[in-house]
Design the sequence.
C-alpha cells in the first residue's frame, strides 16, 4: 500500500487562515505586523524565496519591508541596516536571507539582530532558550516539521526518531525539539561520520532527511510504515524540463512512498511550512509588542 501524502501546502493554508484572523485582531488595535527582509546580492534561489515571503505577507494582511544590498556591500553596512530595523517600532521581525556573500561573517550579522525580532530563531539567545525549553521563537523549518508530523497523526511519544543531518538551521534544532518532554521521542542523529547509516534509518518510526543530498534515502533504508519527512530541496539536471533541471528532495520519493506509512513530497511538503512559520513568529512578535504597549499605556 502506498504511503499517505502529508500535504504541506494544505496545512500551510490552514495555519495562514488562522494567522489572518490574528492579524485582523491586531489591526483593530492599530498594529500591522511588519517583517523586514534583507537580501544581499542576486542569488536566484534567494530572490525567489524572498519574493515568496513578500507575497505571503501581503496575503496575510502583513507589511513586508524589503531592502536589497549589492553583493559587494560591506559587513558594517549590513549590520547598520539590521540595527536600524531593531530600532523601528513598525518592524516586528527581521530576516536576513542566507547564504550571505563570503566576505560577510554570518554569525556577526545574526548576532546583531535583536532577539525580540529574531523570527528565524537563529540568535544565540533564542537558541539557548530553545535548548532550555523556555518560550522563544522556534526555527521555522523545524517548527514546520513538527506541525507536519502532528497533522499526519503520528504519535511521537515513545517513537524512535532518526534525523539525517546536523545543520544549525534544521538538524540540530530539530533534534533538540524532538526530545522535549511534550514531544518525547527517542532520538538518533546521523551525519557524514555515521557508519552504516541504513542500519539506523531502518529503525526509525519517524525519519527526517535534512542532509542536502539528492535522493539519499532509498526504499531499503526505510522501516515499513514509517513517517518520512523530506526537508531537502535539491536541483538535479533534467534535459526533459524546460529549465533543464527539476527539484528533488533528500528522499527517493517514488520508491520510498511504497514502503512508508506517510511521506512529504518535494515540492509541496516542508517548503510551504517554512514560510508559514516565519509569518507565525512575526505575528507572535507583533502580539507581544502590542501587549507591552498596552501595559505601558495603562501605567
Sequence:
Amino acid at each position: 500500500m502506498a504511503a499517505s501524502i502529508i500535504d504541506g501546502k494544505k496545512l500551510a493554508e490552514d495555519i495562514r487562515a488562522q494567522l489572518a484572523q490574528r492579524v485582523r485582531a491586531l489591526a483593530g488595535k492599530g498594529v500591522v505586523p511588519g517583517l523586514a527582509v534583507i537580501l544581499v546580492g542576486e542569488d536566484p534561489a534567494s530572490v525567489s524565496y524572498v519574493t515568496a515571503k513578500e507575497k505571503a505577507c501581503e496575503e496575510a494582511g502583513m507589511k513586508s519591508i524589503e531592502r536589497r544590498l549589492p553583493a559587494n556591500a560591506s559587513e558594517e553596512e549590513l549590520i547598520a541596516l539590521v540595527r536600524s530595523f531593531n530600532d523601528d517600532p513598525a518592524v516586528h521581525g527581521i530576516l536576513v536571507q542566507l547564504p550571505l556573500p563570503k566576505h560577510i561573517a554570518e554569525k556577526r550579522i545574526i548576532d546583531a539582530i535583536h532577539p525580540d525580532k529574531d523570527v528565524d530563531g537563529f540568535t544565540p539567545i533564542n537558541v539557548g532558550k530553545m535548548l532550555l525549553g523556555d518560550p522563544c521563537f522556534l526555527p521555522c523549518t523545524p517548527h514546520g516539521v513538527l506541525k507536519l508530523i502532528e497533522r499526519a497523526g503520528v504519535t511521537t511519544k515513545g517513537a524512535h526518531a532518526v534525523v539525517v543531518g546536523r545543520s544549525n538551521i534544521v538538524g540540530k534544532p530539530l533534534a533538540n525539539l524532538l526530545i522535549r518532554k511534550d514531544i518525547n521521542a527517542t532520538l538518533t542523529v546521523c551525519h557524514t561520520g555515521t557508519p552504516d547509516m541504513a542500519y539506523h534509518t531502518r529503525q526509525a518510526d519517524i525519519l527526517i532527511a535534512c542532509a542536502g543530498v539528492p535522493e539519499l534515502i532509498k526504499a531499503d533504508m526505510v522501516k515499513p510504515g514509517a513517517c518520512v519527512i523530506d526537508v531537502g530541496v535539491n536541483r538535479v539536471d533534467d534535459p526533459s524540463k524546460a529549465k533543464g533541471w527539476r527539484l528533488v528532495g533528500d528522499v527517493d520519493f517514488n520508491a520510498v512512498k511504497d514502503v512508508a506509512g506517510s511521506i512529504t513530497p518535494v515540492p509541496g511538503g516542508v517548503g510551504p511550512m517554512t514560510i508559514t512559520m516565519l509569518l507565525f513568529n512575526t505575528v507572535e512578535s507583533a502580539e507581544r509588542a502590542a501587549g507591552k504597549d498596552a501595559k505601558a499605556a495603562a501605567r
